[in-house]
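EI: anyone free to look at a 157-residue chain?
SC: sure, send it
EI:
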Amino acid sequence: MSYENVKQYLESVGLGDRLKLLSHASATVEQAAEAIGCAPRQIAKTLSFLAGEEPILIIAAGDAKVDNKKFKELFHQKARLIPADQVESYIGHAPGGVCPFAIREGVSVYLDISIKRFDRVYPAGGNDHSAVDLTPEELEKYSGSLKWIDVCKGWEQ
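SC: here you go
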């Protein structure tokens, strides 16, 4: 149902044609890049964390890794990923399909600056065989993100 919810949301904002159902799995950065035909760094991976008891999503480039020091400086606590078996209940999408669209109410979305360097990025679309083709500006507008943040390391500027 998650893919259908994302499809419905994207259609409601005029971006329904950007959601692609892929013939190959796209659950990991490498799988998604291969299925889409782009560089792994262009995959806009959506990471699920708990900030206290509140779920948050951070969307980062496929080649970026969360820097624990930067995370703690911004959120005033250690980075804690949501356990895989709890992601769907917190976010509304299962691991492999987590994206910032059609998520549960109360989930805060942040965009890491690592994705700003691309013309096109590809977040998941609600399941592990989907992707959405967007510009970083479109991702910002339609994800409901709160702001751009800098909590990642390991990516080339």
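EI: The longest strand covers residues 44-51.
SC: 👍
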